[in-house]
Amino acid sequence: MPDAADLLKPSARGMNVTRLPAIPVHDLDAQWPEKLFQREIERAKSLLAAGSGHFPDFVVKQADRLSRSWLRRSGNPYLDEIDAMNAKLDAPGIYFLNVNYEWGCTSGVTETPEGGNLLRRVLDWPLDRLGADVVAARCNSSAGRWVNVTWPGFTGSIQGMAPGRFAAAIHQAPMPRRTPIMPLDWLINRRRVWNNKAIPPAHLLRQVFESCTNYAEAKHRLMETELALPSIFLLSGIEDHEGCVIERSETKAFVRESPASAGNHWQSRQARASARGDNSDSRSAAMLARQKSNDMREGVESAFDWLKPPILNDTTRLVMVANASKGDLLVQGFEKSRHSTGTGSGMGGAEGVTEILHLECDRS
Q1: Can you tell me whether residue 175 is helix, strand or coil?
Q2: N or C terminus of the chain: which is more exposed, having fewer CB within 10 Å?
Q3: Hey, where are the domains in the chain?
Q4: Residue 347: helix, strand or coil by DSSP?
């Protein structure tokens, strides 16, 4: 398997003289979802086509209908935004995109040698184009500027940074087990979500970025707000001690303080559940071990040196490092490697398909 550094920096190793595409960066106001969609509508269509191409058209339309019905019944505050974007599309899928949480992740929070706290985040999802179509939206809000690492057409936030305040990310929680039959459990859990009118986790995180002025406020909101479905949040502030993993049921919070890591299984609470993704235990353990090592260097060239199997795997689509204290953000998009075995084991893994984006943000 190629060394992770070779995958991340091919031009520096002389392996590939072709420059990778840059991740687009957009400066937007509080109405960022619709404006980002208008600027990147072709990228949005590409992503929706990749997501819906595995299903018959009638299935995608039905999923859209049910998703919009649930958003309307629950009084979702962003339904008008999704409606406006849907009106500009000639294919279904955008409603389902905004309620779909079928991913895996590996992330961690830890203090940095020069002070502050650092969030390392890896998003895994077998959906093609997520890495190639990622964008960065620098958004205005009442609490200050923040950067949403996202996709056009998506109205929530699953990772981002508010310089001088905090950085945060969402993991999909493990699936509750209620019967011995997993497909039946999936249907039961979907029915529970259908009957729940609380806010989805990604929309809550957007509200936290837009309205919370500091780490303490963000932590309180993520712990106390009722959710439509369980979730795992990672939060990293600007002081050494300001970092935690918040494991959430719909109504309760279980907190692990920094240094801490998370995969897609429960570590703080006792509940019968099936981890999402492959090797959740080993991914989380590897992240924690690498955070505690003494060779964690800073800088663009070495920022992703920790990205190795099992953290790096076939389904890795996005890697982010965020230091809210310094206002530094690094992001790279990934897709399945041409050399991948397709086993999810990390052999062949994924490879970078964008340049590393390095944003140095004003903390004010």
Answers
A1: strand
A2: C
A3: 4-32+103-360
A4: coil
